[in-house]
Design goal:
Helix content is about 20%, strand content about 30%. The chain is an alpha+beta fold and about 350 residues long. It has four domains: about 15-70, Arc Repressor Mutant, subunit A; about 80-145, Nucleic acid-binding proteins (OB fold (Dihydrolipoamide Acetyltransferase, E2P)), CATH 2.40.50; about 155-225, no CATH class; about 235-335, no CATH class.
């Protein structure tokens, strides 16, 4: 049960400081419902609270975690998904948040593993977190299926077995390959780490082929520069949901105009187009009438949504000779938010 604040002297909304204090001291994830209940807010106050929480997020005071619980900006949610990133020589297990949208470096949390030896590098856990002194500790609640924490590298055959040499600066280590997945020596591959130091091995999950092929340079750049190229299931589900929304009847229909998009033949995301003709208004003799058509992305991507957070994290679409890493899922970037010829 979340604690309830005495409202004997409280009138209306809590202050920003009171909300921050409640979020920091609550023994359960603090969402809008828990905050409203703790401060005894009325139905009208709850509407104002929603706006206040949005303002606090815009001011960089708080952030929201999946499930709509809030935490201080730069802090860690009370319950969150963590990824094991190291097990040191003393047996201490260290993890980082799987999702971290802040510009500050992601914190390292010491994991209290009651089943000694059960967790290894690359494991994902759902955990309760607590601030301890100048750091954080994590109390595992559940081990989750492994995700996309992959190493990009080239395979090398040695007498003692197959080894993977990472191609990224942050992954210059070599790893013994426990399962090559049909890959051959000199293949560029993606592999998943497993095990505990000093016995960390990798299992090949995808064979990319010749490391000198054009497509390989794109993949190396994506991994080397840390360009996000995988959307979460939450974001993909939201994209499907918003794409099904009707546009409404309050829009002006300009489909009768020969609006032109100027893009390469292989372009997929046509996000702007133009139309112009001489102006027949005598007051604008020799002038032109012009329309610039722009995809209404804001209709689908609402502030604070999973799509909005992911778009902010990516910043822009990234174009390579053989592929595009889009800012939004493809059903929006190349379909609903693309001005395609002959398509409503």
């Amino acid at each position: 049960m979340p604690k309830r604040i005495s409202t004997s002297t409280l009138k209306g909304l809590p202050t920003r400081e009171q909300i921050l204090d409640f979020i920091a001291t609550s023994d359960v994830p603090a969402g809008k419902r828990e905050i409203a209940r703790a401060f005894g807010l009325t139905a009208q106050d709850k509407i104002l609270l929603k706006a206040l929480l949005k303002d606090m997020a815009d001011e960089g005071l708080i952030d929201s975690a999946p499930g709509r619980a809030f935490h201080k900006m730069g802090g860690v949610p009370k319950v969150t998904v963590l990824r094991i990133m190291d097990v040191d020589d003393g047996g201490n297990i260290w993890a980082v948040p799987e999702r971290w949208d802040s510009e500050a470096p992601a914190p390292k949390l010491r994991v209290r593993d009651r089943k000694n030896g059960a967790l290894g590098v690359g494991d994902r856990i759902l955990a309760r977190t607590e601030e301890a002194g100048q750091g954080w500790i994590a109390l595992p609640m559940k081990v989750l299926p492994r995700g996309e924490d992959l190493v990009l590298g080239v395979l090398r055959q040695e007498p003692g077995g197959m080894w993977l040499q990472g191609v990224e600066k942050k992954e210059r280590s070599e790893f013994l390959v426990s399962d090559a997945g049909g890959a051959q020596a000199d293949d560029l591959v993606l592999a998943e780490r497993a095990g505990r130091p000093p016995r960390v091995t990798v299992r090949v999950t995808q064979v990319l082929g010749d490391p000198f092929a054009p497509r390989s340079f794109s993949l190396i750049a994506i991994h080397k520069l840390g360009i996000p190229d995988v959307f979460s299931s939450e974001t993909l589900d939201e994209a499907v949901h918003v794409a099904a929304q009707p546009l409404g009847d309050d829009r002006e229909d300009l489909r009768h105009l020969p609006i032109v998009a100027i893009d390469p033949a292989d372009a997929r995301d046509h996000d702007d187009a133009v139309w112009a003709m001489p102006d027949d208004d005598p007051a604008n003799d020799g002038g032109w009438k012009a329309i610039v058509a722009i995809a209404d992305v804001s209709f689908y991507v609402r502030p604070g949504s999973s799509l909005d957070r992911e778009a902010r994290r990516r910043g822009n679409s990234v174009y390579f000779p053989d592929r595009v890493v889009p800012m939004l899922p493809e059903n929006l970037s190349a379909e609903m938010c693309s001005l395609k010829e002959g398509v409503d």
